[in-house]
């Protein structure tokens, strides 16, 4: 499988369970790349939706992808603090083209005070039926929602104090 190398600029591809592309982020700088973990940074990157529409991200972000966890975490750095958008997803793969994962609809938004809300449960329920998510996937995804909530409450991984500051500082060294 290989791994993206530190300093590489890569795309991020999000798919749906049916194999269709969901969203593409044009450019993310790899800050750490191992078999088990990719941490990247981006700012004002072009995002292309499945219907061809494009938009540009508004703020710097640190992206966290793990090869064993069924979620990824995007930390958006804003003037009033760090906001996290957590996608319940398949573990990432790297295929020398892009960091890729399957988006499973459920999301958790975390605010700077570490309060959070679970989003898109209706979309998940609809897609679970439409795309015929296997029972085992449904179980894994629900377990990972619980795991992610524990990480938030325990300030683990990207939610740990200083985690985002450290990786954002590293990202800034690549922008100069």
Automatic annotation (TrEMBL):
One of its GO terms (molecular function) is magnesium ion binding. Pfam families: DUF402 (PF04167). It comes from the Bacteria. SUPFAM superfamilies: FomD-like. The active site is at residue 23. Its cofactor is Mg(2+). Residues 18-156 form the DUF402 domain. The keyword Transcription regulation does not apply. It catalyses: a ribonucleoside 5'-triphosphate + H2O = a ribonucleoside 5'-diphosphate + phosphate + H(+); a ribonucleoside 5'-diphosphate + H2O = a ribonucleoside 5'-phosphate + phosphate + H(+). InterPro entries: DUF402, FomD-like_sf, Ntdp-like, SA1684. It is an enzyme of class 3 (hydrolase). Mg(2+) 2 binds at residues 105, 107, 120, 123. NCBIfam families: PRK13662.1 (NF010183). This is Nucleoside triphosphate/diphosphate phosphatase.
